[in-house]
Amino acid sequence: MRAARYAIALLVLAGAAYLAGSMVAEAKEGDSYYMIVFSSQNESNQPRFAHTFATFVRTSGDSGAEDAVAEIHTISWMPRSLEIVVVRRWAEPGINLDLPSTLRWAQSVNARSSMWGPYEVRKELFERAVEQKARLRSGAILYKAVDERMRGEIASNCIHAVSDLDTEAGVLHVGRQRGDSASQEVVNHLTRWIIDPQQTHPWVAERIGLRGQPIKVQTAE
After folding, report:
1. 92 within 8 A of 98, measured Cβ to Cβ
2. Is 180:41 a contact under the CB 8 Å cutoff?
3. If you write DSSP's letter for every residue of 96-118 in order, what string do you get?
4. Burial of 182 (C-beta count, 10 Å sphere; 0-12/13-18/19+)
5. Contact of 26 with 115, CB cutoff 8 Å
6. How far is residue 88's CA from residue 48's CA, in Å, rounded to a whole number?
7. How many angstroms from the chain centroid is the CA of residue 164?
8. Predicted confidence (pLDDT) per residue in 108-134, tens digit
9. What global pTM score does this model have?
10. Cα–Cα dist 71/22, whole Å
11. CA 110 centroid distance within chain
12. Domain ranges of the chain
């Protein structure tokens, strides 16, 4: 049954990427930028069902307008098979899922999802996320759950695909943490890019289709 769900998810991916992926428009003076960090994990937080991912949003114009969202980019780095094998010896081809596909994957493996934000962030972090997404989609980077010897140049896991947007002050190491705790560490690692870590912007989540989704809202520690 699980294999069937994975197959369905892969079939849906191409259409979802086209319909619900990035909405690209020319950046303008006065645009705002936001980050939402997510996690998924099952009740026992097994590694093969744990995932860290993030969505970056550019808005333009009035925040209350229906068309305020100008771009959406998600970094959700998974093995192409959508089956996470922690002890796999070799790196494998990866796939960068969009946000709807990632949430469907979590539901298919009975994992609950959580989110931190949306936080307003500096433009440079958004631009780094766009570049990272393009790099992942190019095939230049493989997927490996335990990636320490290959990190950055050859392969990456889902956590580092997001946290390595900022390596200037050192790379993030989360040890055996995964799911919620790993995603919290990613938020902490990227805090210097957040304009006001105490303020979130729920309207952004609504504008990108998260209203009514079974996602737990977490607060930064």
Report:
1. no
2. yes
3. E--HHHHHHHHHHTT-EEEEEEE
4. buried
5. no
6. 12
7. 12
8. 999 999 999 999 999 999 999 999 999
9. 0.86
10. 6
11. 18
12. 2-218
